[in-house]
Task: structure prediction
Amino acid sequence: MEIRIPESSLVVLIGPSAAGKSTFAHHHFLPSEILSSDAFRLMITNDMSDQSASADAFELLHHALRKRLARNLLTVVDATNLQVEARQELLTIAKEYQVPTVSILFDLPDESVYAQNRLRGEQSLAPHVIRRHMFLLKKTRRILRHERFRYRYQFHSVEEMNQVRVIRTPLRVDRRLERGPFDIIGDTHGCLSELLELLSKLGYQVTQVEQEDRTFYRARHPQERKLLFLGDLVDRGPDSPGVIDLVRDLVNAGIALVVSGNHDQKLVRYLHGKRVELAFGIEQTIEQMKNRSESWKKEALHFLEGLPSHYVLDAGRLVIAHAGLPEQLQGRTGGRVRNFALYGETAKGLDQYGLPIRINWAESYRGDALVLYGHTPVLEPTFYHNTLNIDTGCVFGGKLTALRYPERELVSVPAKETYADPRRPFRTPNEIAPGIDGSLYTRDLLESLRIKSRFHPVVNIRNEQALAAFEEMNRFAIDPRWLIYLPPTMSPSETSSESGYLEHPLDAFRYYQQRGIEQVICEEKHMGSRAIVIVCKTPEVAVSRFRLEQPSSGIIYSRTGRRFFDDEHLEQAMLSRIATAMEKAGFWEQFHTDWACLDCELMPWSAKAQGLLKNQYAAVGAAAEHALQDVVSQLNLAKESGREVDQLLSLYEEKQKQAHLFRSAYRQYCWPVNRLEDYKLAPFHLMATEGKVYDEQNHLWHMQALADICKHDEELLMTTATRIVHLQNEEEVNEAIQWWIKQTEQGGEGMVVKPEQFLVRGEKGLIQPAIKCRGQEYLRIIYGPEYNAPHNLERLRKRGLKKKRSLAVREFALGLESLNRFVEREPLYRVHECVFAILALEAEPIDPRL
Amino acid sequence: MLLTITYTGQSADDLGYLLHKNPTRVQEFSLSFGKAFVFYPVVKEEQCTVALTLDLDTIGLLRRQKQEQLQSLQHYVNDRPYVMSSFFSVAIAQVFGTALNGRCQERPELVDQPLALEATLSVVSSRGGEELLRKLFEPLGYDCQLENILLDPHFPEWGQSSYFRLHLKQKICLKDLLSHLYVLLPVLDRNKHYWVQQDEQEKLLRHGEQWLVSHPERKLIVRRYLKRRNLAEPIIEALEQHGNQAPEPAVTVSNEEEKVPLNRLRLRAVTEELTAVQAKKILDLGCGSGKLIQHLLRKQVGEKIIGVDPAYSVLTIAKNRLKKIETKAMVELVSGSVFYRDDRLRDFDAAVLMEVIEHLEPNRLRDMEEVCFSYLRPRLFIVTTPNQEYNVMYSGLEAGEYRHGDHRFEWTRAEFRAWAEQVSKRHQYELRLTGIGEEAKDVGQPTQMAVFYLQEDRN
Result:
């Protein structure tokens, strides 16, 4: 005897204890596929026969069952399952996950069950237990056929049970072994002549033979391609029976597969003699079938009735379904699957055309399989979240479209006439792939966010940090459609051991030298605020490329994703100045782009950090200088009157000096801004343009590309002073140190040391993309006015950089990942999750002085 | 951080005896947060000045704290070492403890004798400006001179700082002067360095009870000194009962206070709308700390309520607020926002955006609209927002100023109407506009409300 079991299904074993269910299960299934109530009892009590733990054991069993079915894994429930309620519960769970169910009834004669029980020795059950099970078995035998198991098997003897062969069969919808290539065709609706034209355009040789009341078709493709039809073969169009003939012949010849559409289903109901509303095109089909024979109708019914809800093809990489199918229903069968595949999802109420409001299911689609669907006519097929609707409304006077797979090429033929009036205009690309709502989901971000990036192993985001980033993103960040990049944090060099210094270039050089890098670039570190600039060649680009609602010259935002300027006019004016400089530099032509993303520093510091400066730096400076001045003058009075206060006086005079230096330090970076030209923008990375991210170009290339732009507006744009250092050349190293000392003595913030290449991998993954060395005076505003007093400096030297550096590398990888996804035109959520993850990493508690 | 006290009188060196500090040398005191020094800048026949200064060990203090508590540079670079803060108050108690407690072995008769004293404090921080300083010190009989300090003379446009040099002058007992400073310095300090505990109540009463009972700002002083409400309230009550001598300053009970507060009226109005359609499943979008949900539960409106907010911290507050209420309704609080979809929030009878939209950037309203009206699509949608025209009625608001610092816009009635009409048209809702709060001539009511009803399947 053979029993056939669908590859992903729920198998319920039913029978008395000692009937041999467990033995059977272990013989035919993997141990991991079997969920046994005994095993769960054992797990929680150390005693598998402890019936008092049954409720708990089943709770766990059901939980485990759900988790397995969610993964579409075949699962066997090994328990007596002799109670109706127990079986119902299992059926309900199977329905929840839309998997087929199989019952196997161990209907063995009394004597063999009692005999097997005795053989169990110590573990054998009391005879009255078995007796009760046999009683329940009798009842089950009677009622089981009324229960909703898809497949039912039973054994009547031990021999039968031992001889059985279990064969696993794929589900009908499972065509993962079909690898293509395919040509997938959208809703045909009886448009026979357009279909024939399309087939020939696709390269199929179709031959027709007229016979009695119908035409017979044969077709082949020189490359042995296969056709996939998305359903709705019939209604509205001029020759629905003809389309049925053609497609059925191709299916029978094994060169086509078809899924069912809602119109096909309606025709099935009609042909079954059920009452259907004679509207929406079926009336034409009925008219066209008038001359067809009863046997033709019977065959047509048989064909249409047999069409599956969807197919999973090409090793699971492709799914076809008439109205689309979300990931959790793919490769499953059941009422919900069928309903969704045929009709899609609708919302309450009707739209302005009196039609049901369709929910764009593709918005929430996050699956790995490409889903091809139709059902709702669209003007132009548009890839969106790995889905594609290719119903271009041929019957409504649009066109009939096919997608070549895996080439992803669209081929179409126009409709010869308008056979029916659409009640609603075709959906525009913007409606399919909405620009207005980015269709971002809370669960994409807040449920254990893991990002696989091409530059770094998986980055995991802790929930606490995700929540912090979520608030930041919602309350302060710019529109996610603009937010395609955030810059990484930057680690300082190792703490210097040079006397009087906390940071020194030698340590940055040493870091790179130890990692086998011979050449680094030193860039002057501007003291302003980090600014990401997205420039559009023309304001329309904001709408067409970034999918914003309004045209815009671009945006300037901070390293936490906030808009840099409150004054939008100022921002737009600055952006158009930059765009003009780029125009003059011939940038747009050179880079074949109409937008660019630049990583910059924007000066003065006081422009952005006005609040911080006034409330923190200026305030501390004012308090310090006045208080210390008063102490010193009182001490001087005491000294004049002959008291021994020298030691104390010099302590406070030193403090006074440091307070003064503190004020000079922050004053360097402040100047009033009244006009656009009072700002200075220093770009240092050209991050991306259309289709390209410049992570493979070295820093000299970046500097050159940007210098070409800066020279066309020297009032606003500023180049960054740089120098190349060969780390083995002692002279160059010393010169670079002198350069740093000179710069910082003149009030510069310091410098950034980067490896020559933008992205460098070491033995343990990415190495730091940049290391900063801040000047002695600048550090005063970070560590406090008196930080470099010897007893303070000693204590400050104990600082750990490990965490900061790990963050810097992860954020760097995520930022580049985000840009790459954007230029590859991935869906918004895929870009957004990277940027969101950077914000979340920034919420990690870390010493803000680093 | 310098305090000088000058005594002008016949035998000015009495100050040394009173303070228990030898005028001839610098004295150093080790404190847990740094060092204190006492020296005498002036010792003359008829005048004597003592100075107390602090050298705060900021780096040492920071090293005792956890990294999680030090998330901004403000924790590292701040005015603590330079202003007269709670640290200074502790220093007074430790260095001048004997004098503060009114003991003097060698000249006990001086303790209760008012002396011509002058104190200079350099510098004090007062966010309430000059007014607050005067309110605190003048009722104690001081002649106050204040010198405000410019934020930065290089950038005069930045204006004045909140720092002052404060000169106090009065014929007063030294112990009283010290106890005034002991209590009032922490009152001026918004970032007290220690965790205020119960024993602070006792310290406050010991050094302040006598003069606090008649101080008109005693409530403010007690609240700020003790910081925590549950500590402050019993003391305030005790002071009120104790010192029923000074009559309450005549408080003009303005009409405003007798009226039901606006937020209460809003809660009522929203609840009425929800009741009218018998909404069972209700969404509170931007629920904040859960006041609306609390109100709904008390009025037994709704069977399933979900509160949504992007800020996890306020959800925690809401959770605590709501757990005290006994209810049969199912209440859930979830992290979410009007910009992100969440399928748990669909199929609701009603959704409320109460005083939320004005916190969104205007250019993101369309995104909110897509998520709320197109995706969530409840049968009833209630939106409330301030009526900007009414702002002229608030005396504290300057022209063009918003009611809250985080408001990104405030709409006139016409602007709100235009927006609401567009939304109702785009998403097939019927619209009713109304107002909440007392109506004023020409400017309408303080809050405006739009109620959207989903147009039912009419075919």
Observations:
- The CA atoms of residues 139 and 215 of chain B lie 7 Å apart.
- Residues 2-194 of chain B form a domain with the c-terminal autoproteolytic domain of nucleoporin nup98 fold (CATH 3.30.1610.20).
- The longest helix of chain B spans residues 174-188.
- Chain B touches chain A through 84 residues (CB under 8 Å).
